[in-house]
Amino acid sequence: MAVTYLNFFLLIIITSYISEVLAQNDEDPTIKTMEHFSGYSNHDSPSCTSSSFSVDTDSLQLQIDELSTFSDTPAPSVTRILYSDKDVLARRYVKNLMGLAGLSIREDAVGNIFGRWDGYDLELSAVASGSHIDAIPYSGKYDGVVGVLGAIEAINVLRRFGFKPKRSLEVILFTSEEPTRFGISCLGSRLLAGSEALANALKGTVDGQNVSFFDAARSAGYAQDQEHLSSVFLKKGSYSAFLELHIEQGPILEEEGTSVGIVTAIAAPASIKVDFEGNGGHAGAVLMPHRNDAGLAAAELALAVEKHVLESGSVDTVGTVGILELHPGAINSIPSKSHLEIGMLLVLDEYAFPAKTRKVKVLEFRIVNQDPPSPSDESIIKAMEDRRKELNLTYKFMISRAYHDSLFMARISPMGMIFIPCYKGYSHKPEEYASIEDIANGVKVLASTLAKLSMK
């Protein structure tokens, strides 16, 4: 809110009026006056004013649409792979938006991007928000993007309102939340959380075209020295709070007509790789009793995954065989080898069953990652709940069954997530969609919660 000459004189009057009170503490009188004038202070929440927050929906939708054009596949699909040319262009686009929002920008060795709005007490740890913009092949334009562009718009909302944060506010674009290129989910946030194991593993990591992680990173302008990935690590307490705005990626909010989901915990799926080896042969010549079919062993394991989760007794337990490859892959050849990659919320312990029944070997059973789940911080949950009440939005408490960067940011600071509805729960496909009205509701809750937390 621009301060006109009239408002300037009003500030002088207010300053004079409360000067006796201000003299009793050590805070800057100008800052204290600004807090009073804007309706925010160390002691008061933005409860009386957040309902008047204004989101520039036209601009935000345009940004979402423009960002989706940085894709290696045609619209309406989006494909944006880590360190690809389109990824580099998309990063440049977001950095430009951060600059237009008045944020100071820095990037770390793997390409995590930070845009900061300095608060007036620089000794305090910042409050952060953000998500990712990488996209798996032939996916949609809202996953992750809403959390990045929405966070930048939340900063713009607060600036337009005339708010001045006490704690700095920071927007983070995380590198490679999706495991598409190197098979590692939440790569950037894992490193921020201090994963020495990942930093060491990346030294020998290559993609499907045998391009090393460091060669790919250097091609995008990052990772100039592979011995210093530890420079990415953040100390616990680097932020006082972290919030992530995200589409639900499930149907619950839309089906119930609920505006906002307040995430109470993030589940942590295990990623498992399994390789079977049997005996190949001619599909017409080898009789059925004599076969050791690695393909059927893989099929039995896939069915065992489904059985395992259905019998778990929990509606939130899920399992998916997302990759199933057969060798040699010919219609007239019995598969001699098979490879599966499984994502589950429970670790599967029945992989040996098809190996025994099909008389094939288990060449590999490897748990790629099995991270512990993370609860959201109770004080952040309460702050989000209070903010949505001010905005008169319906809500429900829910868990996130999908990975998010918030899972790893919770190792650095208190964490919370805001879900908004998405069409039929679609995600990771071109039909993925969230209305700009629902996105705006999420941005308002985010902006108001950031304001509240920044004044603590």
TrEMBL record:
Pfam entry (one): Peptidase_M20
An annotated Gene Ontology molecular function: metal ion binding
Protein's UniProt keywords contain Manganese: yes
Keyword Methyltransferase among record annotations: no
Domain of life per record: Eukaryota
Cofactors demanded by this protein: Mn(2+)
Protein name: Ureidoglycolate hydrolase
Organism encoding this protein: Coptis chinensis
